[in-house]
Amino acid sequence: MTTTTDLTPLLSALRHIVGDSYLLTEGDLTGYEQDWRKRTRGRALAVVRPGTTAEVSAVVKACVAAGVSLVPQGGNTGLVNGSTPDDSGRQVVLSLGRMAAIRAVDPDNLTVTVEAGCVLQVLQQAMEQQGFLFPLSLAAEGSCMIGGNLASNAGGTQVLRYGNARELCLGLEIVNAQGEVWDGLSGLRKDNTGYDLRNLFVGSEGTLGIITAATMKLFPLPAATLTAWAAVPSMEAAVTLLGLAQKHLGANLTGFEAMGQFALSLVGKHMPQLRVPFLGDADVPYCVLLENSDSESEEHARAQFERLLETAIEHGVVSDAVVAENIAQAQGLWHIRENIPMAQAEEGLNVKHDISVPVSKIAEFVSITDGLLREAIPGVRLVNFGHLGDGNLHYNVQAPAEGDIKAFLVEREHEINDIVYRSVASFDGSFSAEHGVGGMKVHELEQYESPTALAMMRAIKTALDPQNTMNPGRMLAA
Amino acid sequence: MTTTTDLTPLLSALRHIVGDSYLLTEGDLTGYEQDWRKRTRGRALAVVRPGTTAEVSAVVKACVAAGVSLVPQGGNTGLVNGSTPDDSGRQVVLSLGRMAAIRAVDPDNLTVTVEAGCVLQVLQQAMEQQGFLFPLSLAAEGSCMIGGNLASNAGGTQVLRYGNARELCLGLEIVNAQGEVWDGLSGLRKDNTGYDLRNLFVGSEGTLGIITAATMKLFPLPAATLTAWAAVPSMEAAVTLLGLAQKHLGANLTGFEAMGQFALSLVGKHMPQLRVPFLGDADVPYCVLLENSDSESEEHARAQFERLLETAIEHGVVSDAVVAENIAQAQGLWHIRENIPMAQAEEGLNVKHDISVPVSKIAEFVSITDGLLREAIPGVRLVNFGHLGDGNLHYNVQAPAEGDIKAFLVEREHEINDIVYRSVASFDGSFSAEHGVGGMKVHELEQYESPTALAMMRAIKTALDPQNTMNPGRMLAA
User: Fold this and answer.
1) Would you call B385 exposed, middle or buried from its count of C-beta atoms within 10 A (0-12, 13-18, 19+)?
2) Which of A329, B132, B271, B423 has its CA 20 to 30 A from that of A176?
3) Average model confidence (pLDDT) across chain A
4) Which Pfam families match (chains A, B) (predicted)?
5) Band (A2; pLDDT cuts 50, 70, 90)
6) Do the beta carbons of residue B433 and residue A188 sit within 8 Å?
7) Which residues of A touch B197 (CB under 8 A)?
């Protein structure tokens, strides 16, 4: 891939396939070359923007023939540098953004078939207008695209009830590493005919082929969705509350987010217009946001919620709670949760983690890891929040309030990651719950994954992409 | 694999690994060599019954060294000849039956870790005693084992709400085709670190490695489970009823089974002790069994059910309905559904199908395929029933009432399969919704799967099992 062959003929071929306007080699390519968090910037030979699956196929075949590798890209909102080119200037970025059509909705089958470049929020809203819920929901939903959501098996806030992007997907259309099209756009909920190629491509981060379209599950819109905010005396109590909520609400429990008081204090400090319940209360180390989606009625949802919270207060796992009275209040509560990352950024640079451990081990994990970090770095500040219902915490580490933050990051980031990921491993957890591996965590995958599993992953990569055309060096070392 | 090497040293090695009592070469091996429906019988070199994962690993390594292939076997209840040996007398059957331990239950994480040889019903009952629901449920649950359920991605009656075996599985312990152990027993609901090996092994029918243990999801027991039986005027009405039930009951709808009047008439004829509602009513071509699992109370479940059925009657999609008054009545209704295959067997040999099409196309599929079969085979009788909520029908074909049934099967089975599977394909359906491919449907996979997908499957098989040690000739031609 690092030959010095003249690539002008490839560029001509690509221009011929997609048309002049959709082969970008000049001008500002920052949006394609720089990662979402603006921490790395690569340089592309070209950005190619095909408009059809046939064009994607032709682009891949041209690149294979020229020995040039491809970086598939959706909304480029990933957090692990998985969708931007390296700095060789010899990779082609294949942007799916023009393939944004909602191809078909099947109301009786409760499915939608959609192209990879459709923005998640566009899909959510279009489905809602037709009376359906498409439940995948995450912070970047205004920019991320469904193909990238699937390639990275996106998670978000509704996983507790509806699963990750993987569980919402019934079928894929793929252009593989040879440029061949596989139409696996099944709307079937049961189909046991051969190996599960769909799930192999979901979460493969563009390293095996390109997702061009998908058939996704829909759900009836709930009759009412209510949100509550509960003060809990400890992380242990939050886990007990989760069990109570699952027992009382069953599948109606669609959200369960935990937030540490320091994380909330940053919202209070940097977004004073957001009114954070129980802010600064020393007896409230954590708050929990609960969402209850009811197929019956708002009255029923409210009664169920109140019964749950009364029981939780009786059991001492909730000290106080509010239930949003209307949609605006509910949105306000969600805004607090969603603005934690922004408040954190306002406070200054920090080391982010996206970890998961079994729900039963969360409290002990947090207690032990907090201790390890405080011992290693006096004054360190822990911004702990996340999808507790899935065992997934964004366990972020903020520099001490005093001192040079940039120097802190440069000096301590590696050490901090090491402390956190070793602790995660000791609790049978994952160093990447929902963000994936990308270019950023290749080393962690090698360090923490079993050699047997790694060998099988490498064998699969070599079998399906022997020329290493697809996103080389991401997920697995090149 | 077909050399004539002396295999005595291998047998000694296997005996050494598992102990004398657990290497079977003599006596009645019918239970291991014959398939569940007693249609084929192979001949094994030996049946080996390891008691630990380490023993499974050693057995695989010994067979690899000797160039002998393995047939992994659980309860041997599969319906596609996937778990019995060929007739060469040179394959080793590896039975997981001794590895039946429930290793650990994690109540806060809602997971259980269980060995492959645990019988499904044993697991269901053990979990219920601890206050949890393990929802996988299917006809063979008294004999089938969890490892086989995962290797074949078993479906059953609760898929509508809880998914197939695949969706219930969070992690696997695997012995791969080289005899290496991968401990992937994760209890995590989110883990995006590398390719999805778990889902690749789920549904791989023993052709990539051996599942020795799994971590599975649990659910809180519902407060009440109610069953209703509705008479519907057509298959179209049944599909409309499904949509209404999904809207009204949400995730509480845990079962939705449709049964044609002829299928029910066979139950009425051969099991007269079972009282079939609406039996023989000419205005009731189909009945639907609905199950409603409520986390609140029986009163609430009953009120919800009654509201749904009233709405359905108003809309003309249900002509009459009964809701079981107690558990015995509910079990009685389920018995009718579960006894259709037995009643069919009593009536005589028949050609079974396990197909799925998108729910939106079921009515048209049935109408057209019924017509094609009746045209080709005057007097043919169609036993149509199944998991309508998943688009999965057991669309079975019974010989005409008069004539030589055995001769009919021999002469017409191929033609019947051809008519049904071509029709399924024209409706974007699957020729094997939940039973898998095994040895029986290798040809159908080659005929109906896309060449691109087949090539990727073959590449994966070769990459992970280059010696073709694991269940050769099943799923993919050897």
Assistant:
1) buried
2) B423
3) 96
4) FAD-oxidase_C, FAD_binding_4
5) very low
6) yes
7) 453, 456-457
Fold of A8-95: 3.30.43
Q: How far A5 CA sits from the closest chain B CA (Å)?
A: 30
In this complex, how many residue pairs, one in chain A and one in chain B, have their CB atoms less than 8 Å apart?
284
**CATH number for the domain running over A224-342:** 3.30.70.2190
- Give burial (CB, 10 Å; 0-12/13-18/19+) of A466: exposed
ipTM: 0.97
* Class of CATH domain B224-334: alpha beta
CA-atom Rg of chain B in angstroms: 23
Please report which confidence band the pLDDT of residue A402 belongs to, taking 50, 70 and 90 as the band edges.
confident
3-state secondary structure B129-170: HCCEECCCECCCCCCCEHHHHHHCCCCECCHHHHCCHHHHEE
Percent helix, strand, coil in chain B (nearest 5)? 40, 25, 35
**Which chain A residues contact residue B208 at CB under 8 A?**
195
pLDDT given at position B13: 98
CATH tag, A348-426: 3.30.70.2740
Rounded to the nearest 5 degrees, what angle is found at the Cα of B218, between the Cα atoms of B226 and A135? Answer: 80
Beta bridge partners of B291: B227, B255
Per-residue pLDDT, averaged over B41-65, amounts to: 98
Identity of the residue numbered B243: G
Amino acid making up residue B342: M
Domain B1-221 belongs in CATH node 3.30.465.10: yes
**Chain B interface, mutation test: which of A153, A192, A395, most B Cβ atoms within 10 Å?**
A192
CB A237 within 8 A of CB A309: no
- Radius of gyration in angstroms for the set of CA atoms belonging to chain A, rounded to a whole number: 23
Domain spans, chain B: 1-221, 224-334, 348-426
Task: Say if residues B220 and B104 touch (Cβ distance below 8 Å).
Answer: no
